[in-house]
Design brief:
Layout lengths: L8 E2 L13 E5 L5 E5 L4 E3 L3 E2 L10 E2 L2 E2 L3 E5 L6
Antiparallel strand pairs: 1-8, 2-3, 2-8, 3-4, 4-7, 5-6
């Protein structure tokens, strides 16, 4: 199986159809790639979660984390 390099594009070239809530690879200038999505007003990720006390009856709360200074984007594609 051949694995290709990620086809990073400048955020200015992002088509409007990518702002539909799908997960994408996002990267700030000089930063590390992260999974994120457009939430309708900003780039965000809710892949992390807020911890809770073991004695708590409440489930863990998934917290949306905003991204800043996104410079590049790429679609998520399977290898090959």
């Amino acid at each position: 199986m051949e694995v290709k390099l990620i086809d990073w594009k400048p955020i200015e070239q992002l088509p409007d159809d990518r702002k539909d809530g799908r997960l994408m690879l996002l990267c700030a200038a000089g930063g590390s790639p992260q999974l994120g999505y457009w939430d309708g007003t900003a780039w965000a990720s809710d892949l992390g979660f807020q911890r809770h006390d073991e004695g708590s009856q409440e489930a863990p709360v998934f917290a949306k984390e905003p991204f800043f200074r996104i410079a590049y984007w790429a679609d998520i594609n399977s290898p090959g």
